[in-house]
Each structure stands twice: as C-alpha cells, then as structure tokens.
Amino acid sequence: MISVNKIKKDFPIFKRKINNKNLIYLDSAATSQKPEVVINSISNYYKKHNANIHRGIHTLSDESTRMYEETRSKVAKFINCNPKEIIFTKNATESINLVVRSFVAPLLKKNDFILLTEAEHHANLIPWLMLAKKTGIKIKYVPINNGFIDYKKAEQLLSKKPRFFSFTHVSNVLGNINDIKKLTSIAHKYNVPVLIDACQSIPHMKIDIKDIDCDFLVFSAHKMLGPTGVGVLYGKYKLLKCADPFLGGGDMVIEAYYDRFVPNNLPNKFEAGTPNISGVVAFGSAIDYINKLGIDNIESHDKEIINYAFDKFSKIKNIKIYGSKNLRCSLISFNLFTDSGMLIHPHDVSAILDSFGIAIRAGHHCCMPLHLKLGVTASCRASFYIYNSKQDVDFLIKKLEYIIKMFNGGKKDG
Amino acid sequence: MAVKKMDNEIYSEMILECYRNPKNFGTLSNPDISFKDYNPSCGDVIQIDLKINNNQICDACFSGSGCAISRVCADLILSHIKEKGINDIKDIKNSDVINMLGIELSPMRLKCALLPLKVLKFGVYNYLGENIKEDIYG
After folding, report:
1. Do A351 and B9 make contact, defined as CB atoms within 8 angstroms?
2. Nearest to A371 among B43, B68, B69 (CB)
C-alpha cells in the first residue's frame, strides 16, 4: 500500500508554497516531480564520480561508465528486455525521430503509407509528417472510438499493409488505456512493425516487452520521477541492428577513416557524442525508487485515485469529460461551462486554480488535431501520481465548482 | 496604472461581465480588414474585422476562441479604436492595453492579453502595405 503522506516527504517540492498555499500538483502527465534521492543522485555524481564514459581507463571514467550502464540494465529489467536493446536519447520525441529516420525511412517504397491514430501527441505526428513531406508517402489515421483506438478500423487499415504502425498506449488527452498487445498482434498478422508511445502509461503500470512483443517502444525518464533530458528507445535487437545510424559522431563508430566509417555495435551505434550521463545515472535512482514502492502498488494507488476522481468529476453539473471511464490511466481532460453553456476557457480555469496552489495543465497538450476533432481549441487536464491523495481530488472539485459559480455571476466565496 | 494582483483577483466583476457580454463580439459581412492569429502555446485564435472609411475605423468586431483575458482585451481595444484614424493604431503600445485592463499580468497571461493587439496591428500594417517594424511582444 502507498502512504501519500509518507511519500510527499520524499519530494522537496512539496515544502514550497504557491501563492501562499500548499502545492497540489496535478500536472504529472506533463512531468512528474522528483524525489530527493533522484535530485541527490545528480549532485552526488558530479561531486564524486564525474568523468566521460566509454573512453577512459582511469578510475573516474570507469565508475561513470559503470553507473551509466547500470541504469541501462535497470531499464532493461524494468521492461523485461536485453540491455543492448535500450538506447538512451534526450527524450521520447528524439526516440521516435530516430525510428522514423533510421529504421522506417530507408525501407520506404513508392505508394507506401504509414498508419498512426487520431490521438497521437505531436511527438508521434510531426516526425511522420516531415517524412511524408520529404518522400511523398501518405499517412492514414485509425479513428478513436469512445477514448480508445478503434480496433476494428485498425485491423481494416492494417490489412492494407502500411509500412509501419505507430500508436500511443495512453493518449495524454483521452487517458484511456489501449490494448497494445492486441494491436501489436493484429499488426504482426499483416507483417507490419509497430512503435508504441508509452510515455503516459509506463509511470503507472507494469510493461512487459516480451509479453507485448512490440518492435519499438519509447518513453521519457522525466514522467517517471527521473530528470529531464533522458529518453528511452527500446527496439528489437535485429531491427536496431539493421537500422541506419542516427546521429554521427564519437562513440557511435568502431572504425573511422578519412573516407569511411564502421558503425559501433548496439547500443552505442545510436548514442553519438557525450550523453546526459548525470541524468541517466539519476534515472537509475528513479527506477530504484519505483521498484522500492513496487510498480503494482503504484498501479493500484493510481487506479484508486483516478476512479475516485472520475466519479467526482462526473457529478459536476457543467462539465464535459473527454474519453470514457473504463480502463483509464491517471489523467482526466475536461472543460467547464457556465449555466448558459458558455465555455470557461481552460486558461482561466488553470489561472484561478493556481491562485489556490493547484497546478493543472490548460491548452491543447500538444494534440492540436485531436482537439479539433473534439471540437475545442483547448481543454483542462488534471493528472495524478503517487503523491496525490483523495483529499487533493476533493479540493480540486471544490474549486472547480467555485469557478463555475464565479463565471455564472454568483457570489465569490471560494 | 496597472495593479499587481493574485490570479483569482484579476477576475474582477468588470472583467467577468465583459467576458460574458462583450460589446464588440462578432464578424463583419464585408470587412476591409480581416486578420486572425493564434497563440501557439494554447491554440487560441482571435480574428479581428474592421470597416474603414476615409482612413477612419467605422466598425470593428472580434471573433474566435480565447480566455477571459484575451477576449476582454480584444473588446477593450476595439471600443478604444472606433472612430480613430487607421494610422493611430500604429501608436498603440502594449502598455496601453495593460492600462486599459488595469491589472498587472504574469508573462504567460501577457501573451493572452497582447494577442488581440498583435492581430490588429498585423491586419492594419498589411492593409496599409507596410512592413511591421516593432517587436510586437516587446
């Protein structure tokens, strides 16, 4: 079981006052807060071990290399794969760009198309649009049905043999958990390789690569208690092996001459230049912290909070919630309206909540096409993690009701 | 002068009333100037339509979707420019908008507040066939 009060003590940020109020942080879908062990891990690395990796014989370089590689092993164990299949990037966005340019682009033939879904984050849309612009290939989109990827439509489109299928595990707007194992197996039935964007899901639930059998999976450290500037790309060994190098530079070559080079082995082939060593080391501490709590305990806590929140949200009179209740990950997007049906703009909602110390996200959450589809330009999003309690939800609900009253022209007594 | 206030305090009754019932909301059927722009950080869009007669602004409307701050600023600016000469628009400063609103804003909210003026200036400079020289958010 997770004790929120105990956990909050591990996160120095909760000592801060926001507008003289206690911080209620409900924006973990954008980035999570960091426990003290992760923060200390960065300074500890610089104070005691700092040296460049993979190139020195001296003690510090050896220590740094071990620490960096130890995180790779921790990540591999966390998602159940071989460490050589883990590539460190600067974020999930870079991981997707790597797959687009190094794996998919060289495979393309005339008249090929790529399959995405209507719910993708810009990170899993723009790199493909850039590819389409350059090569003239088409992109098709699987529609969304009640918050979920439409599995039937997905199969119809997959049967037409796209070159690649890239889709999200949990949309950062809709919050529903897609059946990635099922989608992967349908895609493989038609020999279509898949990439899964697991940014929103992996902080909250167990992901087993062997079980899912996906070809690529991406996520970022900063949404799962780690520092910013570290992303992960998982790729099947044989696919990464045949993919072209991504960035060229130091460490990604095994032999270099004035007229040619031989790329390094995996995973170094895709990690050109000095990486974010301290960030990767601290990411290892974040995984340790998650393992100590237990990902199963995190999952059941987060589930309890989101179910509680969804029920409370549903009782608000003038609210529109996006996505459905069942199989929901830790976030909820919504819009508030006045009694006369006028939208209360998410910016206004977020600004007023901020004055009470509550941090939520307002905007299009880097999903402009999905918002157009939903018929709005923006939405509010509250997202929850291990440091959020039911009391946080109650306080948020109380203030949302206050905002509706305020815009209705009611008495301001919040 | 602009007063520094907490975010929930910036929503005065004047601002809320102006948000609920803006005086200049809508579109014009045959505008001489129609220009729209987005706030990329939130996707908000403001369109401003102007009717010009003898280099004077005789009618002005705004439409689109935006937060209370951007809508209220659009409404206040348009009330301010009616009957004014088109060249006078060039002289409106960011600080004028803030003074009309009467409150101080954080940098993120400042973008909301200044979007309508940005749209208005782009529309007018475009109409006059002149290049915009100033840094619009400056």
Report:
1. no
2. B43
What is the pTM for the complete model shown? 0.92
Average pLDDT of chain B is 87
CATH number of the domain at A38-292, please? 3.40.640.10
How far apart are alpha carbons A209 and A64 in whole angstroms? 28
Preceding amide of B22 cis, omega within 30: no
Cα A259 to Cα A34: distance, rounded to the nearest angstrom: 46
Between A and B, how many CB-CB pairs are < 8 A? Answer: 63
Q: Quick check: A354 and B7 CB within 8 A?
A: yes
The domains of chain A are located at 4-28+294-408, 38-292
Interface of B with A in 70-89 (CB under 8 A): none
Interchain CB contact of B36 with A (< 8 Å): no
For chain A, the helix, strand and coil percentages under 3-state DSSP, each to the nearest 5:
45, 20, 35
- For residue B29, the surrounding DSSP H or E stretch is none
Q: What would the two tokens of residue A224 be?
A: 């799962």
Distance of CA B56 to the CA centre of its chain: 17
Find all residues with CB under 8 Å of A351, minimum gap 6, and list them. Answer: B7, B8, B10, B67, B109
| CATH classification (class only), A4-28+294-408 | alpha beta
From the centroid of its chain, how far is CA A345? 26
What is the SS3 assignment for A306?
helix
Give CA angle at B134 (B129, B136), nearest 5°: 100
Out of A352, A368, A377, name the one closest to residue B65 (CB).
A377
DSSP assignments along B83-100, one per residue? TSBGGGGGG--HHHHHHH
Residues of A with catalytic roles:
366
Strand A144-145 to strand A343-344: parallel, antiparallel, or no bridges (unpaired)?
Answer: unpaired
Q: How would CATH label the architecture of B3-128? A: Alpha-Beta Complex (3.90)
Contacts of B39 in chain A (CB under 8 A): none
Closest listed residue to residue A401, CA positions, set A354, A311, A339, A355: A339
Pairing between β-strand A164-168 and β-strand B33-39 as defined by DSSP bridges: unpaired
**Series of mean pLDDT values for 10-residue runs along chain A (414 residues):** 94 96 98 98 98 90 97 98 98 98 97 97 98 97 97 98 98 97 98 98 98 98 98 98 96 95 97 97 98 98 98 97 95 96 93 95 91 90 98 98 90 48
A162 in Cβ contact with A132 (< 8 Å): no
Domain ranges of chain B: 3-128
E-assigned strands of A51-163?
A: 86-89, 113-117, 138-142, 144-145, 148-149
Sort out which chain B residues have CB atoms less than 8 A from A371's CB and list them.
43
| Chain A residues lying within 8 Å of B16, measured CB to CB | 406-407, 409
- Choose from B4, B5, B7 for mutation: most chain A CBs within 10 A: B7
Confidence of residue B39 (pLDDT cuts 50, 70, 90): confident
